[in-house]
């Protein structure tokens, strides 16, 4: 009289149990001053529909804009200051001045600095706009043609200034 366990368990009816809802312990909230409340821009959002992934992508895009702006600003200041390596054959070290090289590099340096600051402001604006849209759980997809127009105008402006600066010599 051996009974198969699979047959025996299938004939039994098991009672279903409702899942219990467990709450986490109450979190102690730190009292912040008015200054801390004003400067705190962190937002608590629910993690549904891949909200964490979108938030991390938003921060990654902000860091990309920040890196681009820092690179352009450093490049602009490098052109303005005109870093030179010292000549080992020259006994007296000399600093290159604008009179030595002309003023043709000056507008280009200022343009790179201005574009770097503009990239910083654009990146900051995009970050907070996307963060606001994440809180509202709205999606924003850029068409792309506006970006191409802005880059085209910027390209034409930089080329025009470079041509004018080179013809001034």
From TrEMBL:
<dbReference type="Pfam" id="PF02656">
    <property type="entry name" value="DUF202"/>
</dbReference>
<dbReference type="InterPro" id="IPR003807">
    <property type="entry name" value="DUF202"/>
</dbReference>
<dbReference type="InterPro" id="IPR052053">
    <property type="entry name" value="IM_YidH-like"/>
</dbReference>
<feature type="transmembrane region" description="Helical">
    <location>
        <begin position="65"/>
        <end position="85"/>
    </location>
</feature>
<keyword id="KW-1003">Cell membrane</keyword>
<feature type="transmembrane region" description="Helical">
    <location>
        <begin position="105"/>
        <end position="124"/>
    </location>
</feature>
<protein>
    <recommendedName>
        <fullName>DUF202 domain-containing protein</fullName>
    </recommendedName>
</protein>
<feature type="domain" description="DUF202">
    <location>
        <begin position="53"/>
        <end position="132"/>
    </location>
</feature>
<feature type="transmembrane region" description="Helical">
    <location>
        <begin position="145"/>
        <end position="165"/>
    </location>
</feature>
<dbReference type="GO" id="GO:0005886">
    <property type="term" value="C:plasma membrane"/>
</dbReference>
<keyword id="KW-0812">Transmembrane</keyword>
<keyword id="KW-1133">Transmembrane helix</keyword>
<keyword id="KW-0472">Membrane</keyword>
């Amino acid at each position: 009289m051996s009974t198969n366990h699979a047959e025996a368990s299938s004939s039994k009816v098991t009672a279903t149990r409702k899942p219990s809802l467990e709450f986490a312990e109450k979190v102690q909230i730190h009292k912040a001053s008015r200054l801390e409340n004003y400067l705190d821009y962190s937002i608590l959002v629910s993690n549904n529909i891949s909200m964490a992934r979108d938030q991390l992508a938003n921060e990654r895009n902000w860091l990309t804009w920040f890196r681009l702006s820092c690179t352009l600003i450093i490049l602009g200041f490098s052109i303005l200051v005109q870093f030179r390596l010292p000549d080992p054959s020259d006994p007296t070290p000399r600093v290159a001045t604008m009179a030595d090289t002309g003023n043709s590099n000056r507008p280009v340096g200022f343009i790179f600095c201005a574009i770097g600051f503009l990239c910083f402001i654009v990146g900051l604006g995009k970050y907070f706009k996307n963060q606001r849209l994440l809180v509202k759980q709205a999606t924003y997809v850029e068409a792309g043609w506006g970006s191409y127009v802005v880059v085209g105008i910027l390209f034409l402006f930089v080329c025009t200034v470079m041509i004018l600066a080179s013809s001034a010599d």
